[in-house]
Structures are given as structure tokens and as C-alpha cells.
């Protein structure tokens, strides 16, 4: 939502990049700026007609990598690169046209949410307008929980928080801001107040959700054994977390971080196992964390197949020049800094007929790794018969059972988090509770997790100190969902401190090992197919779902209405400008017969 590409469109003159970005930033924050002359654009004949207006573009010229990844005015008002023209998202005519385009697609494609890529690079007044208007429109289509999530890749948590939920403002009195915010945002909130306050599910103007990059990056580093495990515990009392959650508008019946997206891998991050390609146990621990930690977990494609982003040693390439290019790409696998790691190492082919098949920590998958020429014909096999997608190996089955377990336990999908213990060294243990929404103990899930183990060995567990004011009774049992014959017993010392003792069945956590403990009486019988006992009573904790969708006839009517709604303002605004001149899926992780195995 931040730029438009056209190789045949260009600037007439060279923009003063820094001065232009600062001028736009003054208008954004202060509402006024010193005189500044923007450069002109020469639009090609096939440039997208609704946007063929200089006023719809900032015209500050291309950024460097530091500009785009930084937090200076250029990050918002500069072009991504040469030829990717940055929209002037403060222009309210542009906001209306662009949002109407999105409304059309919401109706036409029956969308339940939209992800805004690189949302950091648009102005917050546009974020508020687009989010508010899309949610209001979706309500008229029978979608009360329409999700608008932004990829805010800023380092500064304050920057991210300002785009989320309440947007550092009082939704009922936008002139009352919590911290300084752009004047353009405040004025837009005044205009939008009656619309967003009328939304009972989300009475606020900002994004419904964000990627929780801070939590995701912290846990990823610890689970890769690059940082102490205690850094994960520290995050839960950090300024970064408090700042983000202060602006979050939680879903009904859920904690404030339940809808924030979390990950251990992503399309812009090197593969989790990139530097340790054969340590499948590290990925096992990371997936366990991801699917028991707070937030909405992202399983980036290929994690269930153990992809590590490393190139196979042998390849079927006969052209020397091609081999050299491939070798150069593959040699960058250890360069993990932003901008240095090739995208191709984290975006490989996933079918045997593809030429770019990288390695996996799973031997059954790794045997298919090869870099070869594009075949003359593409395989016609159904996807579930492809040799690159086996579904009986350990990593696939682990993710399958953990997804099912997460879905069955309301504490994992909607509840709060209470840390108990975290090792002050890399590859250490983590112990935490997930509590059902409201903080009561019934349905509590206690997780013990060892990423790599101390010095790569087993981590013993005999007694775990339990934090929090939870009413756990003396002698209460917590049963291991992975092995119902294994359990822990609640005991209190003379000071009233609660412990979970395993003296009746002590054990060791191997590298990548974990224990999932649920209060006795809150588990269903052990599921032999999944290899785990699921939680009971999830139906009692379900979030209210949307009402029945409109009929096909009514949807067709909405498509027509959406098209008209798009066409009228677009045509009117374009004609107006001509007359008055220019203004300077669901990922299936199981066979089709078992719905509980689907993410």
C-alpha cells in the first residue's frame, strides 16, 4: 500500500531527497512547512489511470537501504528504490480511492482480513482511515471481526504502537493524545471518530494487529542458542511489551496480545536452522514455543518439512556461468544481516518438479534436495503425492500434534502468560504457564522446554517453582499431555511458595525436549493417532464468530455496489482534477479425514 511501479514513468528533474522528505514530514507532524517546490513526474501512457496525478505521489526520489530500514522521514516519504514511486498517503482523495479499491476486493473475493506489507512506510492518518473504513464496510457484509494487520518493521516499539489499536490517542477524544503524534493523524481521528466508535468489536481507529517482531526476534535468538534463555523471560516485563499492549484492542474474551502475530521464521528472515542445518531438535523446541506462547503463530511454509535454507553440495547444472551465480548466492547463506541474505535461500521450491530444492534437517525431505535445470514439463501429480511433501516424519507429526493441542486449549489461544523459570545461559530451559482468559487456574497449561540443553546435554527436572497468585491446592496433579503416566504434584513450602514436584516421576529433558502439563481432569483420553492428549472444554471458550454470510445473490449485489462505489469517486476525482488542474489459507497438516489435524 505504499508505492506503485512503472518503468516508463520518471521524474522530470532530480528530487532533493532529504529536503523533500523533511518538508513532507513537517506537514505531517506540524500541519505546515516552509515553501518547497516538488519535482514533476512524466507519466507513461499506460500508467494506472486513477492514480495518474502528481498530488498522489511524494516525489522525493529513491531511498538507500539505510533510509528504508531506518526511521527518518525518508522511511515514510522516499521511494523504496528507483522506479517504485511512493504514494502521498496524506492526500485524502488518494486515501478514499485506494480504500475503495480494497473494499471492492473484500466483497468480490470474500476476504476476512487484509495484511498490509511494509505498513511502516505509510502515514498514520492513512492507516487510521483505511483500517476504520475497511472494518466498517466489512460489518455491512456480515464480517464483524474483519482483521487489518500491518507489517511494521520498525526497530522502535513506540513507532509500531502508534499504528496499533488506539494509536497513542484517546479514541473518544482524539485531541487528548498519550504522547506526541502527527497532527495529520489527530485531525483524521476527529473525522473518523463516529465511525470507529460505532464498531462494537473494535471501537478504535488503528490496525487490528501487528507482527510482534520484538517477542518473535527475542525468542528466536534464544531458541537458536544465540542468547540466554532468560532474555525471553525479560521480554514479558519489558518496556517494549508494555508499550505495544497499551495500544492493543483485544478480541472479545482474549488477552491483549492474543491477536498479535508471532513467528520463528518469515519470508524476510533467514531460515531458523540456517546456521545449524542438521539440528532438528532446535526447530522442534522453537515450534513448541511458537505454538504454546501468546499470540497468533505463523508457520512459514516449509518449517513443517524442516527446511534450513542451505544449498545441496551437488547440483545438475551444466552451464558454468549459471553455476557461478548459484555458488555466489549459496555462499551468502551465513550472511544473515538485513539486506545481505538472499531471498532465494528462504523462498525455495516445494515440489519435486521445481529446480530450486534446498536442504532440510529431515532426512526424508533432504534426499530430494537438488539445484537443477527447469524441467520441460511440470509434474501433474497431486500435491499430497509429491516426494518433497512427506507427512509421516517427526517434524511434520510434531507440528500436527502441537497445532491440535493448541486449538484444544483455550489458555493457549486466548489466555495470559506467566513465566516461572528461565536459564541464564544459552540453550537453557524455559518454564511458563498459560492461563485461561481472566487469570483463573482452571485449564492452566504449564510448559517446560529445553532448546539445546546445558552444553548440549539433558536438562534434569525435579521441582519447578510456580509463580503467580493462582489457587493451586496441595497435592493437585498436573498430567503430562504427551505421556499421561507422567505427572507433577503441587506442594507448598513453609513460606507458602508453590512448587511442582516430579519426585514420583522425575525426568530429564533432552535437547529439544518438552513437557506439557495440564491440571488433572482437564485432558481428554490420549489420542494415539496424534500422540497427545488434548484439552477438554474448548467450546466453552470460543470467540464469537461472524453471523452467516450473505447469500450468493446478496454477495453478487455487493459486488455490483462495490464496483459502483469504486467507480464513482475515482471518476469524479479524476475529472475534478482535470477541470481544476493539478494540486502541486489454511495450511492442512494432516490427511483429509481428520479435521483436528488442520491448522
Layout of SSEs?
Blueprint lengths: L2 E3 L4 E2 L5 H14 L10 E2 L22 H5 L3 H5 L6 E3 L5 H17 L4 E4 L7 H17 L6 E4 L6 H5 L7 E2 L2 E5 L5 H15 L11 E2 L2 H11 L6 H6 L3 H9 L13 E2 L17 H13 L3 E2 L17 E2 L3 H12 L24 E2 L5 H4 L3 E3 L21 H15 L1 H5 L1 E7 L6 E7 L9 E6 L8 E3 L1 E4 L10 E4 L6 E6 L5 E4 L5 E3 L4 E6 L32 H29 L19
Parallel strand pairs: 5-6, 6-9, 10-11, 12-14
Antiparallel strand pairs: 1-4, 2-3, 7-8, 13-14, 15-16, 16-17, 17-24, 18-23, 19-22, 20-21, 20-24, 21-22
Helix pairs in contact: 4-5, 4-16, 5-7, 11-14
Question: Your description of this structure?
Answer:
- This protein is an alpha+beta fold and 599 residues long.
- Helix content is 30%, strand content 15%.
- The protein contains 16 helices and 24 strands.
- The protein has helices spanning 17-30, 65-69, 73-77, 92-108, 124-140, 157-161, 183-197, 213-223, 230-235, 239-247, 280-292, 320-331, 363-366, 394-408, 410-414, 552-580, and strands at 3-5, 10-11, 41-42, 84-86, 113-116, 147-150, 169-170, 173-177, 209-210, 261-262, 296-297, 315-316, 356-357, 370-372, 416-422, 429-435, 445-450, 459-461, 463-466, 477-480, 487-492, 498-501, 507-509, 514-519.
- It has an eight-stranded antiparallel beta sheet with strand order 15-16-17-24-20-21-22-19. Strands 5-6-9 form a three-stranded parallel beta sheet, covered by helices on one side. The chain has a three-stranded mixed beta sheet with strand order 12-14-13, with no helix packed on it.
- Helix 11 (280-292) packs parallel to helix 14 (394-408).
- The radius of gyration is 26 Å and the shape is globular.
- The two termini are 28 Å apart.
- Residues 539-599 have low confidence and may be disordered.
